Predict the 3D structure of the following.
Amino acid sequence: MKMRKIEMGFTEPDMTPMIDIVFQLLTFFMIAINFENTKADERVKLPKDSLAKPPVIKPEHELVLNFGYQRSASGARQKPVPEIFYNERYVEVRQIMPDLEQEKRVMERLHGNEIIKDVTVLIRADSEVPTGLVQELIKKCQEAGFTKFSLRATSEEV
Amino acid sequence: MKLRNRSSGPTKVEIPMAPMIDIVFQLLIFFMLNLKIVAPEGNFNINMPIGAPSAAAAEQNLPDIKVGIVSDRDGNLTQLTLGSKNLGNDDLAFERLNKEILQIIGRPGNPLTKDVEVEIDADYETQYKYVVKAISKCTGRMDPGTKQVARYVEKIKFAPPHKPKA
């Protein structure tokens, strides 16, 4: 009688190994995910360089400017002039001034009046953008009061 | 007797696993969908003080290294120059630039040439990638064996921008 009962009763599968693996996977994805790069705009095709290593010390305050072309899915340019992708809008370099001033005002309100000297402007420019326009953008930023600049590139394995 | 035995003795308590597994799977799916594999990005700092060029470098009597990038109307590289020296326009031009910079500073991390600045003078149309490449070649070199970066010149600045070619 006893024997028969065991045979009839449903056996619960052993969940422990599965849960172990699932937790491993969970941990892996949690570590691999980086929310930091959310500002990185995929529409910009950055130049590649082997020396571009992620900075050891991250600047405390930064302003990321994505500068590139509007491209179709196949990568063809839809407009001949590169634009700055600023808050879901497309702004040409010569019209960026009001936005830069607004950024400055917001930062000053949040962190005090001297903050502008500590803000690093990260320029993520497309590899095909004319250099003159990048320089113009830097000049505009200087006029707005920003002083530190960084150029972004994707690090490339050699 | 039976009751007493059950309450006092060590009994195996089954923890309900199902809700936990549900939640863990939810989390797993959330993180899997949010995972975006992006190549790590690095920075090149450039030195762009407002107003007049820095007086410090002039005082120390260290001449700036001038790197010129000449391009055609489409932004393709036509000539890379260092001072008045022509380095050509092929892929090897940037390697030549790298070697020349090393010769100028002597050895990587040389304290005597710590304050040397490189001035990048690029045509308006030059594609940005050439500028980044030139900056990279001036800032250092990666040893292919050890993957260590030897730093050459840390200070990079831009010359005043040119007018676009008519």
Observations:
- Chain A touches chain B through 52 residues (CB under 8 Å).
- Chain A is about 35% helix and 20% strand.
- Residues 38-155 of chain A form one domain.
